[in-house]
Specification:
Radius of gyration: 19 Å
CATH architecture of the largest domain: Alpha-Beta Complex
Oligomer: single chain
Largest sheet: 10 strands, mixed
Strand content: 15-25%
Number of domains: 2
Distance between the termini: 22 Å
Number of strands: 13
CATH topology of the largest domain: Spore Coat Polysaccharide Biosynthesis Protein SpsA, Chain A
Low-confidence stretches: 16-22
Helix content: 40-55%
Order of helices and strands: HEHEHEHEEHEEEEEEHHEHHHHEHH
Mean pLDDT: 85
Shape: globular
Length: 360
């Protein structure tokens, strides 16, 4: 057992995603969710085109337009019809209203999960590298104990790292490895707390054993790291793989203002903690320093998000009755780390180096 674990870790550290194609590739499905992205139309269309031109086959793509009212759904319809005429297996579902990011992904999952071995979640503001999906699925094919994987995600201009692995702290704060570091910075493959919903690939079997994809009550944010708790609890791991995944214009696809995004981020983070941690009422005290910084920048959006997150978590505890436990790698953050992070946030400084120091 220890030998197998070491072999997988060695493979993680040397994974390059350039292995030759397997003789028979399993079917994969890509789920893309869009919402009022007209202000970034050119970016969204470039991303959707990159998704449709992924080198992997057999591939199915379903795009969920989440009740867009700005015309972006019509732009997507034109590009989907164009690629469908070329023989691509692509489908557009236009919803009459915004049902939330989590629920929209769930809809895509129910459409094709039963006929796909792997499910890729790719945001409509992320342009994947052509061979990235093949590399991630090849990795999952070789490691049956891994339930999901992600690669290195860069910022839209390709100069900086957007995400090189996601971790949760001991008090459920989200820590993103490598953010704002130079794109050339290398990070070893490793197990992570969760894989980023911007571009991640899951084993469909792992999602099913975990009880399904997302809890729809997480309207925006919180869904991916809540799912991670259940995937880890189901006996799978989640891995960061040293594959260049793509470029991401973070926030372009959600159709919400920065202040609303702050609200939903705090709501989701707090909700997951309350749902899965029996000592949430003690750990929530650790939110106060960061909350002060966000109150200064975003008025009461962060405060309201935390309060509503507590209510959400308590409601979900009554409904789901998950076993109280924190799964996956955890990072212990010291008081001095928190103070430095707070100072960096207040001054608008890159926090990549600080997050690096928190990596397990």
């Amino acid at each position: 057992m220890e030998r197998n674990a070491q072999e997988r870790l060695d493979s993680l550290r040397h994974e390059k995603g350039s292995d030759s194609a397997m003789s028979t590739l399993p079917t994969a499905s890509v789920i893309v969710v869009n919402s009022n992205s007209c202000l970034s139309t050119q970016v969204i269309l470039e991303c959707v085109q990159a998704i449709l031109e992924l080198s992997y086959a057999p591939l199915r793509v379903v795009i969920i337009d989440n009740g867009s009212t700005d015309g972006s759904g019509l732009h997507l319809q034109h590009i989907v019809e164009s690629y469908a005429r070329k023989g691509h297996d692509v489908r557009l579902v236009r919803l009459p209203r915004n049902i939330g990011f989590a629920a929209a992904n769930n809809l895509g999952f129910t459409l094709w999960a039963s006929t796909s071995k792997y499910i890729a979640l790719i945001n409509s503001d992320l342009a994947p590298n052509p061979d990235s999906l093949r590399g991630l699925i090849n990795y999952l094919e070789r490691h049956s104990s891994v339930g999901g994987a992600q690669g290195k995600i860069l910022t839209w201009d390709g100069r900086r790292i957007d995400n090189a692995g996601c971790y949760l702290s001991d008090v459920w704060h989200v820590l993103v490895r490598g953010r704002s570091r130079r794109a050339a910075t290398d990070y070893a493959g490793a197990p992570v707390s969760y894989v980023d919903g911007a571009y991640s690939v899951y084993r469909a079997e792992a999602i099913t054993k975990a009880g399904g994809l997302f809890i729809p009550d997480f309207f925006l944010y919180g869904d991916d790291y809540e799912l991670a708790q259940r995937v880890w609890a189901a006996g799978y791991t989640l891995d960061y793989v040293t594959i260049l995944a793509g470029r991401h214009l973070r926030g372009a696809s959600i159709g919400h203002s920065k202040k609303e995004a702050v609200y939903y981020a705090h709501r989701g983070e707090t909700g997951v903690m309350v749902l899965h941690d029996p000592f949430w009422f003690v750990k929530i005290i650790a939110y106060f320093p960061r909350l002060i910084a966000h109150i200064i920048a975003y008025e009461n959006y962060a405060t309201r998000g935390i309060i509503d997150g507590v209510g959400l978590g308590l409601k979900l505890r009554r409904r789901h009755r998950f076993r109280d436990s924190a799964y996956g790698p955890r990072v212990c953050v010291t008081t001095s780390d928190r103070l430095w992070h707070l100072l960096a946030r207040l001054l608008g400084l890159p926090r990549g180096r600080i997050c690096d120091s928190w990596t397990p």
